[in-house]
Amino acid sequence: MTDLSVASPCRLKINGKSHTADLPPCVTLLDLLRERLDLTGTKKGCDHGQCGACTVLVNGKRVKSCLILAVSIPDAEITTIEGLGSDGHLHPMQQAFIDRDAFQCGYCTPGQIMSAVALLEEGHVRTREEIREFMSGNLCRCGAYNGIIDAIEQVVSQQLQNRAGEAA
Ligand code: FES
Ligand code: FES
């Protein structure tokens, strides 16, 4: 039987920086980020995989970090909300959330944005209904859903315009 108190080495790349820590196997990725690395942009809501507040990217895919044990993903590349922008600029999805008033209290927002960034890569953005369906793992108690979908549609439309500009 695994001894949950025995630490083992864990190496992860988070927002482009390598981190190594000795961790007990019971530490979730969410608790590693928030409690040990001070990356508190990723939020803890339910801690049971139901609200999406803790969404981050692991090797480019969105995951609920409260459901993943840090030691189970050795050498993974993690992106959190803190690592999304670059060179002092917001990521287009972050900007779109501001432009479209896509939040109220903001607690769910980091998870919504990380999920939305992954959604674009997944390509499930053809209609508002499709966006709504594929964002359904991220709950917003303030009910900012219409603004969230508007924000995602804004980025989709920017991407289409950029591609059209490149092709012209
Ligand atoms: S805190 Fe992870 S899904 Fe709610
Ligand atoms: S903005 Fe408050 S929970 Fe979503």
Structure explained in plain terms:
The protein is an alpha+beta fold and 168 residues long. The chain has 5 helices and 5 strands. A 5-stranded mixed beta sheet has the order 2-1-5-3-4, with helices on one face. Helix 2 packs across helix 5. The longest helix has 23 residues. The model has no long low-confidence stretch (mean pLDDT 95). One FE2/S2 (inorganic) cluster (FES) binds next to loops.
Q: What are the main properties of this structure?
A:
globular, 36% helix, five-stranded mixed beta sheet, binds FE2/S2 (inorganic) cluster, alpha+beta
Short characterization:
This protein has five helices and five strands, in the order ββαβββαααα. The chain has helices spanning 29-36, 92-99, 109-122, 128-134, 145-167; strands at 8-14, 17-23, 55-58, 61-64, 77-79. Helix 2 crosses helix 5.
Report strand %.
5-15%
Strand order across the largest sheet? 2-1-5-3-4
Estimated radius of gyration: 17 Å
Structural shape: globular
Structural class: alpha+beta
Largest sheet: 5 strands, mixed
Mean pLDDT: 95
Strands, total number: 5
How much helix, percentage-wise, in residues? 25-40%
Number of helical runs?
A: 5
Low-confidence stretches: none
Could you give the distance between the termini?
62 Å
H-E order: EEHEEEHHHH
Which compounds are bound in this model?
A: FE2/S2 (inorganic) cluster
